[in-house]
């Protein structure tokens, strides 16, 4: 057995017009696309020769593949000049002579149409493969998203479980040997926080009073402006409306201008302490309100 491609390329130069390889025991696939000048090819009695590929375009007018293994005749679609064909199995010639050339042409056209249909079918199959690939990818993405959501759900459930465990632990510390009671635990925490915060509010309020007294002494004739700026500061902290905030900010700037020379850097310290006390009082009031609704 001889590999068809190697045999032909070693024996025939690329510019030949005829290739006759009769009964040379050729096998495999034969690609003649680099032989554009061929007008005649004959590969009879090569039973292991499986397929042919021709140059596009080509000048071939005579093809013989009788008693070969070439069953796929789609290569005939690339033979516009074909006049005579010798079939693979029977050796019968079609179009042998000018009068019957139309038969070879008809066969060539039939092969060409078959080739077109096969190509179209291949394209459809390839498109289906692409569609299936896309669907598989979408399905894989959906699975990943579902898994991510599942993981998030599990994490949230674990977080809730951990928080519940922590609350139970706090309850056991506050009320040993008693079942978990969220309302009671909440009230006790509020009470403890209130007891902690109340002295702090008193202490910070005392510091604020001392700062106010010192500021008024330094302000002299403008001591009343100290009360005005502190009241304005209180309104700013408690009022969230933009229009009111703008008006109050204007008043603050005016008061700060009046007190700037006498209080120098002490004014901002006073305002910061006022804000701190207001926030503490607000927090304490909220705790007290929750205690009253127990």
Keywords:
five-stranded mixed beta sheet; 6 helices; 294 residues; alpha/beta; three-stranded parallel beta sheet; 2 domains; 63% helix; 15946_t:CDS:1
What's the topology here?
Blueprint (H helix, E strand, L loop, with lengths): L1 E2 H8 L6 E3 L5 E7 L7 E3 L5 E7 L7 E3 L19 E3 L6 E2 L6 H74 L7 H38 L3 H16 L3 H22 L2 H27 L2
Parallel strand pairs: 1-3, 2-4, 3-5, 4-6, 6-7
Antiparallel strand pairs: 7-8
Write up what this structure looks like.
With 294 residues, the protein is an alpha/beta fold. It folds into 2 domains: 120 residues, no CATH class; 111 residues. Helix content is 63%, strand content 10%. The chain is built from 6 helices and 8 strands; from the N terminus they run βαβββββββααααα. It has a 5-stranded mixed sheet. The protein has a 3-stranded parallel sheet with strand order 1-3-5. Strand 7 and strand 8 form a beta hairpin. Helix 3 runs antiparallel to helix 6, helix 4 runs antiparallel to helix 5 and helix 4 packs across helix 6. The protein is elongated. It comes from Funneliformis caledonium.
Question: Overall pLDDT, averaged?
Answer: 82
Strand content: 5-15%
Catalogue the unreliable spans.
none
Helix content: 55-70%
Question: How many helix segments?
Answer: 6
| DSSP E strands, number | 8
In whole angstroms, the N-to-C terminal distance is: 102 Å
Listing every helix as H and every strand as E from the N terminus to the C terminus, the arrangement reads EHEEEEEEEHHHHH
Region (Disordered): 145-165
Protein name: 15946_t:CDS:1
Biased composition (Low complexity): 147-165
């Amino acid at each position: 057995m001889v590999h068809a491609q190697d045999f032909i390329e070693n024996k025939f130069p690329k510019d030949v017009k005829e290739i006759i390889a009769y009964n040379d025991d050729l096998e495999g696939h034969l690609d003649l696309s680099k032989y554009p000048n061929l007008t005649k090819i004959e590969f009879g009695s090569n039973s292991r020769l499986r397929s042919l590929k021709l140059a596009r375009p080509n000048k071939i007018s005579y093809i013989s593949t009788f008693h070969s293994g070439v069953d796929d005749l789609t290569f005939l679609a690339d033979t516009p000049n074909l006049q005579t064909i010798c079939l693979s199995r029977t050796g019968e010639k079609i179009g042998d002579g000018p009068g019957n050339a139309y038969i070879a042409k008809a066969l060539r056209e039939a092969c060409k149409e078959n080739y077109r249909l096969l190509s179209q079918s291949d394209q459809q199959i390839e498109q289906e493969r692409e569609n299936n690939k896309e669907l598989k990818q979408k399905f894989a993405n959906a699975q990943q998203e579902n898994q991510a959501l599942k993981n998030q759900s599990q994490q949230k459930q674990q977080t809730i479980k951990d928080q519940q465990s922590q609350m139970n632990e706090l309850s056991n510390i506050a009320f040993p040997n008693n079942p978990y009671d969220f309302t009671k635990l909440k009230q006790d925490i509020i009470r403890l926080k209130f007891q902690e915060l109340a002295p702090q509010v008193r202490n910070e309020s005392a510091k604020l009073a001392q700062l106010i007294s010192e500021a008024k002494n330094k302000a002299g004739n403008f001591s009343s402006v100290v009360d005005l700026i502190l009241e304005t500061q209180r309104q700013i902290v408690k009022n969230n409306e933009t229009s009111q905030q703008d008006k109050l900010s204007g008043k603050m700037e005016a008061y700060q201008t009046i007190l700037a020379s006498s209080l120098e850097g002490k004014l901002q310290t006073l305002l910061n302490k006022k804000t701190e006390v207001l926030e503490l009082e607000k927090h304490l009031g909220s705790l007290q309100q929750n205690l009253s609704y127990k």
